[in-house]
Amino acid sequence: MVELTSASPEETERIAADLAGELVPGDVVTVSGDLGAGKTTFIRGACRALGVAALVTSPTYTIGNRYEGRVPISHLDLYRLEVMSEPDWADLEPYFDGTIVFVEWPEVAEAILPDPRARVRLRLLEGENRLVVVEGATKSLQMPASSPC
Ligand code: ADP
Ligand code: MG
User: Fold this and answer.
1) Is 90 near ligand 1, meaning CB less than 6 Å away?
2) Is residue 68 very low, low, confident or very high in pLDDT (cuts 50, 70, 90)?
3) Which end of the chain is more exposed for a tag (fewer CB within 10 A), N or C?
4) Considering the entire predicted model, what is its pTM?
5) Is 32 in the pocket of ligand 1 (CB under 6 A)?
6) Under 8 Å CB-to-CB from 139, ≥6 apart: which residues?
7) Which protein residue's CA is at the shortest distance from atom 18 of ligand 1?
8) How many CA within 13 A on the CB side of residue 14?
9) 29 and 103 Cβ atoms separated by less than 8 Å
10) Which protein residue's CA is at the shortest distance from atom 24 of ligand 1?
11) What is d(CA 131, CA 5) in angstroms, rounded to the nearest whole number?
12) In this predicted model, what pLDDT tens digit does every residue of 42-61 receive, in sequence order?
């Protein structure tokens, strides 16, 4: 597990870009945290690094977006799902076909999602500061000297 602090949206995007370098199709990355914590910002940074030129925004009116980067990418936002029903899962399954999948608000689907390659948790700190906790796929992320874990 790696804990980093980000002091700006750009820094959060850069951390995500580093993580993205380790990802391959078939990988799922869950990104959790309160509203405004930076989940979409993080995913935007990862998508850019993976060659996505399209605008990366929260999929507000659909459950997911697809992007073509160097590999196919899916971006799911499960915020509006209160439970994960069979038909919901049937809608979601195609997003996992040969893609790298980023999932905002993954909690509702944790029992049904494939095992994530990485779990990212973002927490709001003072001002623009965010705590970024990454579990799994942390090889390319810089370890703070003070916490050798
Ligand atoms: P979420 O998807 O978690 O609701 P967003 O990424 O959509 O969050 O929004 C995060 C907001 O916080 C953006 O307006 C972004 O510019 C701002 N922000 C400020 N500082 C940071 C930071 N260090 N990391 C990420 N976002 C930040
Ligand atoms: Mg969002």
Assistant:
1) no
2) very high
3) C
4) 0.94
5) no
6) 22
7) 9
8) 9
9) yes
10) 9
11) 5
12) 999 999 999 999 999 987 77
Q: Can you tell me the distance from the alpha carbon of 36 to that of 123, in angstroms, rounded to the nearest whole number? A: 9
Torsion 67-73-78-79 (CA) sign:
negative
Q: Separation of 142 CA from ligand 2 center, angstroms? A: 25
* Cα 31 to averaged position of ligand 1 atoms, centre (Å): 13
List pLDDT tens digits, range 77-125: 999 888 888 888 898 999 999 999 999 999 999 989 999 999 999 999 9
CA of 9 to the centre of ligand 1 (A): 6
CB-based burial of residue 133 (10 Å sphere; 0-12 exposed, 13-18 middle, 19+ buried)?
middle
Q: What's the confidence (pLDDT) of residue 142?
A: 67
Query: How far apart are the C-alpha atoms of 79 and 97, rounded to whole Å?
Result: 22
Q: Which residue has the tokens 């309160």?
A: 34
